[in-house]
Amino acid sequence: MKAVIVDDEPKAIHLIEDYCSHVSSIEVVATFRGALKAFEFVSRNSIDIIFLDINMHEISRMSLAKMLDHRIKVIFTTAYSEYATESYDVGAVDYLLKPISLDRFLKAVSKVIDSPSALSESQILTIKSGTTSYRLNMKDILFLEKDSNYITYNTTSEKILARQTINEALIDLSDNFIQVHKSFIVNLDKINSFSKESIRITDIYIPVGESFRSEFLRIVS
């Protein structure tokens, strides 16, 4: 998904850029400190999501939001809580109050990734491993295993190591994936057999953590 960031504070732009780097399906294609240039850019280019601060000198960013193509998803990033109600009147996906935490950012982004219009595009994941990027079809992923600061994507044909957290991985995966242990996420379609203690995928046995057990059994039963 192609994203644009609009904010008159460079530090705020850099923060959102950094947060976006944690979501492999989002590519920041442009940043702007002014609304008019931002509007010119999104009018000429195909954009999926815009992170938009409220305060502007040229025109209000609320006005900019009203001018955007309705297919562009808007997430407001602002220090002003009084505009929250108006933001939903223009169809904003979410309203993030500064200072914005990574967890809160990821929750907002998940609303865009999980939307019906995005689901058709979300079957392909782009995973960065070192300097190489891999495109994976979700149906080919068997399970994910976390080890320290890295996650291994175990697929039907290869293993790919990526620097991610469990939560960052879950953001990009479809609802067909579920965390079953502090170190494991499984593809429900790939389960060959299971008990309350473990899951078998091909010839691999994956433990079911006690804190994840009841939810897992509810889903598969």
Walk me through the topology.
Blueprint: E1 2-6, H1 10-20, E2 27-32, H2 35-44, E3 49-52, H3 61-67, E4 73-78, H4 84-89, E5 94-97, H5 102-113, H6 116-119, E6 124-129, E7 132-137, E8 141-147, E9 150-155, E10 159-163, H7 166-172, E11 177-181, E12 184-187, E13 193-194, E14 198-201, E15 204-207, H8 210-220
Strand content range: 25-35%
Rg computed from alpha carbons, rounded to a whole number of angstroms: 20 Å
> Biggest sheet, open or closed, and with what strands and sense?
5 strands, parallel
Number of strands: 15
Order of helices and strands: EHEHEHEHEHHEEEEEHEEEEEH
Short characterization:
The chain is α/β, with parallel strands linked by helices. 31% of the residues lie in helices and 33% in strands.
Write a structural description.
With 221 residues, the chain is an alpha/beta fold. It folds into 2 domains: 2-119, Response regulator (Rossmann fold, 3-Layer(aba) Sandwich); 124-220, LytTr DNA-binding domain (OB fold (Dihydrolipoamide Acetyltransferase, E2P), Beta Barrel), CATH 2.40.50. 31% of the residues lie in helices and 33% in strands. It is built from 8 helices and 15 strands. The chain has helices at residues 10-20, 35-44, 61-67, 84-89, 102-113, 116-119, 166-172, 210-220; strands at 2-6, 27-32, 49-52, 73-78, 94-97, 124-129, 132-137, 141-147, 150-155, 159-163, 177-181, 184-187, 193-194, 198-201, 204-207. The chain has a 5-stranded parallel β-sheet, with helices on both faces. A hairpin with a 2-residue loop joins strand 6 and strand 7 (132-137). The chain is elongated, with a radius of gyration of 20 Å. The two termini are 35 Å apart. The model has no long low-confidence stretch (mean pLDDT 85).
